[in-house]
Amino acid sequence: MAGRNLKSEEKELYNDITVYKIGLDGIAIITSNENNISDLTTQQVQKFILAKLQTGKVLVEVTAL
Description:
- This protein has about 60 residues and is mostly helical.
- The protein has a domain at about 25-65.
- It has helices at about 10-15, 40-55.
- The protein starts with 7 loop residues before the first helix and ends in a 10-residue tail after the last helix.
């Protein structure tokens, strides 16, 4: 089982493998009522998550994305 698509070299190595998708992940963005954010694009959420992963810091200023 893998949480990603097979890499091309894995497909070549196991050329007789059958892949079954058994689920999908979801992400919920929840903000405080005091936060004036009313609309985020998918691109903004991606940048936010990548920045968090790269820096290990919680980002507060979402509008700067």
